[in-house]
Design brief:
The structure is a homodimer. The first copy, chain A, has helices spanning about 10-15, 15-25, 70-85, 110-125, 175-185, 190-200, 205-215, 225-235, 250-260, 265-270, and strands at about 35, 45, 50-60, 90-100, 130-135, 140-150, 165-170, 215-220, 240, 280, 290-300, 305. Chain A is of the alpha+beta class. In chain A, the strands form three sheets. Chain A has a six-stranded mixed β-sheet, sandwiched between helices. In chain A, strand 1 and strand 2 (about 45) form a beta hairpin. Strand 2 (about 45) of chain A pairs antiparallel with strand 3 of chain B.
């Protein structure tokens, strides 16, 4: 046995599936909406309203690299990206199940680090880890599924934007994409954007705030603002017009854009994914405190404009790493 | 464009993620408990009772081989194995989300075959496909998550078996393990056991039947009868005694056991996994119609006996394919 507190020098293959599950789930309890947690054939949750459910998969060398991100980063990112899809319905995320496939050669320490990340981000997001699965695979593949409670409100879909409304946003844009741009060229700074790629910072709780404020459409920005607003424009049958003067471009984004081939920092904001900001359509007098108005909903063909025109600038859009 | 009805000659990498999702989800509707299906940030389900949720991952060359199983087989198996965990709580499965990671070189035809299998098995199981994710990876990794409705009943856990009760079973045992034994030696017959490995046949609906009949403990047999009853014995703090004369050994199992090194067909029944039979503890006068009594619940140390003694026979237990 490894002494308590010492890192486990073994691999996943040496420890086996059941011991691994024990390591990941030890000490997890049940409280609040969780009737039954980890350990039986299913977990059981009690909801006050309808269930919102979404699933999200991250693959090593596609969505993250183990030399760019720590095990804890990967665990945290998996939770953040998934929970964000439930926030984007205006629901209250309550539970999460996580599947981890990893090579038998993976150090146990990597897996416990991953589990620490999952649990830390679950706590930050206010959800409970209630189940999962572990198995061997050629590379690390993580699938998280979030369970969220609509608690008496209807879901806020992408289909409800109406001409005359404003677009408003919570969270931030273009940080993770700037991080990938830096890391992809072998640099590790500016640190703020690198960290943003490793662990997104979704505006937890703001999805529910938006629903309660009367948002009529809502989505999270996972593929890039223009791409995700494109889904809203098509689902709602409206034109969306983004006002770039409302987008706050941070110093590290300017620095990255300047350092990398005369890039336009606006490209990170408009086309960079993976920061999981929330963007929604509101009546102008109902934008929640802390949200920023970034554009307007117009009658017209389903399309997204930038300052009234088509965006022809550069794209930092999320293409994963693979060609 | 490929003519309608003709196989698509392209690969996943050539088609791209969004087109792939369209191919998988085209024509999926919403009905019954599904308020919102595929296509927004989350799906939305309406439940009558508590939510049971479970997730299950299958990895190529660990849980299935593409030269042993068709794409449709893999899709069907992923659904069956996952839904079975919700049946094992006595819940009514209503929705499913599926994540598919696959190499960019995977033929589109394989993916549409997989999707056909998912949809066919969902229909058989009475659940609706409400969401998912697709991404690239080095090998095929499938994660399914089932959403099930306890509809006013408490979950039937593994912890409720009481001395004096009987053990009863629905479904079948040892077929898939016999199939793996055959396939692993390069044979393709008896066909019935090979097919059982490719696509399990869980006793859909019988979990709810058991709950309504008053089952006090319930699980599905995914790792082997003795292994899964071991979980029940430990959770309930009882001894479980399996009566082998009650186990019906089918002709193909006898044939495989005879052909492969003088094997004992009982080993397939007792230690073979992956058929997803349901086994539960019932008062003797409350065993549902169609269920077979296969043993007794006794006071004593948490352990599983076979005809009153420890099982020392061979094991066909589910070890996956990898060492």
């Amino acid at each position: 046995m490894t002494p308590p507190g010492a890192p486990d020098p073994r691999t996943v293959g040496e420890v086996g599936e059941f011991a691994l599950i024990d390591a990941i789930t030890s000490g997890l309890g049940t409280s609040g909406p969780v009737v039954l947690g980890v350990g039986d054939d299913s977990a059981v949750l009690r909801l006050a309203g309808d269930l919102a459910v979404s699933t999200d998969t991250m693959v090593e060398d596609v969505h993250f690299r183990r030399d760019w991100s720590s095990a804890e980063d990967v665990g945290r990112k998996a939770v953040a990206a998934c929970v964000s899809d439930a926030e984007a319905m205006g629901a209250v995320p309550i539970g999460l199940v996580v599947s981890l496939a990893a090579p038998a050669s993976t150090p146990v320490e990597w897996v416990t680090g991953f589990a620490d990340g999952v649990r830390a981000e679950c706590e930050k997001a206010g959800v409970q880890l209630v189940g999962g699965d572990t198995t061997s695979a050629a590379q690390v593949v993580v699938t998280a599924t979030v369970l969220a409670d609509l608690g008496g409100l209807p879901p806020v879909t992408r289909a409800g934007a109406r001409p005359g409304q404003v677009l408003a946003m919570a969270g931030r844009l273009g940080w993770a994409a700037a991080g990938v741009a830096v890391l992809g060229r072998g640099f590790r700074s500016p640190r703020a954007v690198v960290v943003a790629h490793r662990v997104p910072e979704p505006p937890y709780g703001e999805g529910r705030v938006a629903a309660e404020a009367g948002a009529s459409a809502l989505t999270d920005v996972s593929d890039g603002l223009l791409a995700d607003l494109g889904h809203v424009a098509r689902a709602s049958g409206v034109t969306l017009d983004v006002t770039t003067s409302a987008l706050e471009i941070a110093e590290p984004q300017k620095a990255v854009a300047a350092a990398i081939g005369g890039g336009d920092p606006l490209a990170f904001q408009l086309t960079g994914g993976d920061d999981h900001a929330l963007v929604g359509a509101f009546d102008a007098d109902r934008v929640p405190s802390g949200w920023t108005v970034i554009g307007r909903v117009l009658a017209g063909d389903p399309q997204v404009l930038v300052d009234g025109a088509e965006w022809t600038g550069a794209s930092a859009g999320w293409q994963h790493f693979a060609p």
